[in-house]
């Protein structure tokens, strides 16, 4: 095994809190020996608050102070999107293992340079495309591989949440194109684009329409996309940011095969409704979904407990750092999702179908 993870966290906002909880749970689980060494936020008081919870010895509002911590070998980058490229390239230059939140960057060119940096450095790298660790989608993927379904006809996902510039997100920067690079499509539904690539195969071309209704130039709050997949089928996505602050973030997915139907309204535990050829609609409960997930990924005991608490994404990254193995989803995987998102924006701008480049 390699030296144990010594972790620094840069960015103590909403998503930073999520990963900080997971880091503490993983490092205290006795499954991942390691140290939570440093926290950084542009608001020093917020970094101090994190340090009080985590026990981190280094507290700063300057990312360079995190990089300079003696023995640091792993960094979490949870800042606003515009800051990701410079931080990732510096971390890679120093040979640090990197977990970076999505989206990786505002532009496809910046993403390409980040991928080159981490691959050249040979560091363990992972991106926060958390749906890859969702029990409900992992089980759905397995169910869709069962024989007798026939060809895939289509699938549709509706993804909606309130505009995350307020509420528990409190991310005012997401309303600024220069800091975010776009709206609901790149900031939120890059998760969905990656999910579609995983569930339904590579995306060859896209047709996209976007709208801005909230007065934030360049930050769309509606995106409607049709995906042309490499094997000939089409799927579609509706991504919406609304002003219904009491409505939780939701994903509703329906999948149609010639001889089968699947649907879920939950993006973590389920349940999954399904109908097979000449059969009634049945339901796989959340408990059944999670049990099947544990069997599929081969986890029990403490690992299963971390997974059920939504911590497995970070636990898996830290284990891969500890054991010197590639992590997943890595920067290259995120690059492919970014290529599809970039094609969507070009399609919306030019009003035509757009091919997705191979990256």
Please provide a written account of the structure:
- It contains 13 helices and 15 strands.
- It has 359 residues and is α/β, with parallel strands linked by helices.
- Strand 5 (97-100), helix 5 (108-121) and strand 6 (125-127) form a beta-alpha-beta unit.
- Helix 4 packs parallel to helix 5 and helix 9 (190-200) crosses helix 13.
- The radius of gyration is 20 Å and the shape is globular.
- The model has no long low-confidence stretch (mean pLDDT 95).
Offer a few descriptive terms:
6-stranded parallel beta sheet, single chain, 15 strands, 9-stranded mixed beta sheet, globular, 359 residues, alpha/beta
Sum this structure up briefly.
By secondary structure, the chain is α/β, with parallel strands linked by helices. The chain contains 13 helices and 15 strands.
Helix content: 25-40%
Distance between the termini: 32 Å
The low-pLDDT segments are none
Largest sheet: 9 strands, mixed
Please tell me the overall pLDDT. 95
SSE series? EHEHEHEHEHEHEHHHEEEEEEEHHHHE
Number of helices: 13
Q: How many runs of DSSP E, i.e. beta strands? A: 15
- Strand content bin: 15-25%
Helices and strands, with pairings:
Elements: E1 6-10, H1 14-27, E2 35-40, H2 44-54, E3 58-60, H3 63-67, E4 74-77, H4 84-93, E5 97-100, H5 108-121, E6 125-127, H6 135-143, E7 152-162, H7 177-180, H8 184-188, H9 190-200, E8 203-211, E9 222-229, E10 234-242, E11 250-257, E12 260-264, E13 272-276, E14 282-284, H10 286-297, H11 301-308, H12 312-323, H13 331-350, E15 354-355
Helix pairs in contact: 1-12, 4-5, 5-13, 6-10, 9-13
